[in-house]
Design brief:
Strand content: under 5%
Largest sheet: none
Helix content: over 70%
Structural class: mainly alpha
Number of strands: 0
Oligomer: single chain
Number of helices: 18
Shape: globular
Length: 424
């Protein structure tokens, strides 16, 4: 039985509102992670950095179980559990007064962070179909960027409090934000008509045998370094090599966040007119152009002109992000079969998680190598990702590549995967 348009609208609104609440928490935590944990636990920054890395790596081992849980229980239930886990983790941070306790809490928070995206995207896959699924993904991403910006402002306000009071308050607000998000997801009406798994599901063997999906996952891993650069490497490059004041380096992040929040949905609608693989590849090419421009900045601009030039390149970088993000995310969800969507998206999430885990080491090495080395390597990586996307296009199911393709055109893919007629 199909849901009515009114029910679908209620689900969509509550889902994106929950995403907004969670992203406010991310905006508070992600930019100030080291300071946040240091103030609450009193541990050294070196110990904290090592602990966060260990927790992040250990959290990756939980992703296969997360994917299996999504396929068994549905994205809605797993997302509620994941958000509750994050709420518990942040509520426990002020009591982590020993290193083992810190590692345990950091692991809980990391598992929740890595598991949020696949469960959220699986729920979107349950709620919407076809081009409507792309639009909902775009709305979710735009509101999440807005929430990240609001969270960063809230963090700045809380840090104005004296001593550890601000960080303790931040931990409490974070716990509340994710608890509210969990309640909102609970209130999403049950999704009817979700595809049931076949009698003998292949599980991760089928995912690992799906070469086209592994190709788009590998492409995303390469292009994801372009996203991590903004927060991890760009501020250092702008202040050290372009000689911008620290405050202006933060302005670049603010400009990017605002543009993505405002233009995310309109640009997503435009990209639906093209094949998802080609639109995502075009975004990666624009990324590469912005990296080439960043590499040229120290040589050709200085003083007040540098500020204008940096903002112009930041806008170009944001265009690449806008063009790439929606079709690539839509491709990952549309190419996953319904009965194994959780496992597929958990594998795809590894492209982000592994990238964010190894990026600090790689980007730090490239920054030390010189002014242009970082940007040359990044341009090569994102262009390689674009080439892989284009190469995978012909072997992907038509409905995954082309928005609005008639449902009948999707039948051949499930038949090969399941060995029986596809469910409608």
């Amino acid at each position: 039985m199909r849901s009515t348009s009114a029910e679908a609208g209620v689900r969509a609104r509550r889902l994106v509102t929950a995403g907004l609440a969670g992203s406010i928490g991310d905006g508070m935590y992600v930019p100030l992670t080291m300071l946040f944990v240091h103030s609450l636990t009193g541990l050294s920054l070196t110990s904290i950095g090592a602990g966060l890395t260990i927790a992040g790596l250990c959290a990756l081992a939980f992703m296969p179980a997360v994917g299996a849980a999504i396929d068994r229980f549905g994205g809605r239930r797993v997302l509620v559990g994941v958000l509750a886990l994050r709420a518990i983790g942040f509520a426990a941070y002020p009591f982590a007064d020993s290193y083992p306790a810190f590692l345990a809490v950091a692991l809980v928070v990391a598992v929740g962070m890595w598991a949020t995206s696949p469960s959220q995207q699986a729920l979107i896959g349950d709620i919407a179909q076809g081009a409507e699924r792309d639009r909902l993904l775009a709305w979710d991403r735009s509101l999440r960027n807005a929430g990240m910006g609001c969270g960063s402002l809230a963090a700045a306000g809380l840090l104005a409090l004296n001593g550890t009071t601000g960080f303790t308050a931040a931990a409490e607000v974070l716990a509340v934000a994710f608890a509210v998000a969990a309640v909102l997801v609970i209130r999403i009406p049950h999704v009817r008509g979700r595809a049931e798994p076949p009698e003998a599901p292949a599980g991760y063997r089928q995912v690992l045998a799906d070469r086209p999906y592994l190709l788009i996952t590998a492409a995303n891993f390469l292009i994801a370094f372009g996203y991590t650069t903004q927060a991890m490497a760009l501020p250092v490059f702008l202040t050290r090599d372009v000689a911008l004041p620290d405050a202006l380096a933060g302005v670049v992040f603010a400009v990017n966040t605002a543009l993505v929040a405002v233009l995310g949905v309109p640009v997503a609608r435009l990209t639906l007119r093209a094949r998802r693989t080609r639109a995502a590849a075009l975004g990666a090419v624009v990324f590469a152009l912005s990296f080439a421009a960043f590499a040229a900045l120290p040589r050709f601009v200085s003083g007040p002109d540098a500020i204008v030039a940096v903002l112009a390149v930041a806008v170009l970088y944001t265009v690449g992000e806008l063009v790439h993000s929606s079709p690539s995310l839509g491709l990952s969800v549309q190419a996953a079969p319904d009965h194994l969507r959780g496992r597929y998206l958990s594998v795809y999430q590894l492209s982000w998680s592994v990238c964010r885990t190894v990026a600090p080491l790689l980007l730090g090495f490239l920054l030390d190598a010189g002014q242009w080395h970082l940007w040359a390597v990044l341009a090569l990586m994102v262009l390689s990702g674009a080439a892989i996307l284009l190469g995978a296009e012909r072997s992907l199911p038509p409905h995954a590549v082309i928005a609005g393709r008639a449902p009948a055109a999707t039948a051949s893919r499930p038949v090969r995967r399941q060995g029986r007629p596809a469910r409608r």
